Amino acid sequence: MNVKINGPLYSGKAKDVLMTDDPEIVAVRFRDDITAGDGEKKDTLEMKGYYNSVISAKIFEVLEGAGVPTQYLELPEPGCMLARKLDMIPIEVILRNIAAGSIVRRFPFTEGQKFRPPIIQMDYKSDEHGDPMLNEDIILALGIATRDEISEIRRMTLKINDVLVEFFREKGIILPDFKLEFGRDSSGRIRLGDEVSPDTCRLWDMETGKPLDKDIFRRGEEGVVSAYRRVAEMILEMEDIERWNVKI
Ligand code: 5GP
Question: HSE on the CB side for 42, CA within 13 Å?
Answer without folding.
Answer: 7
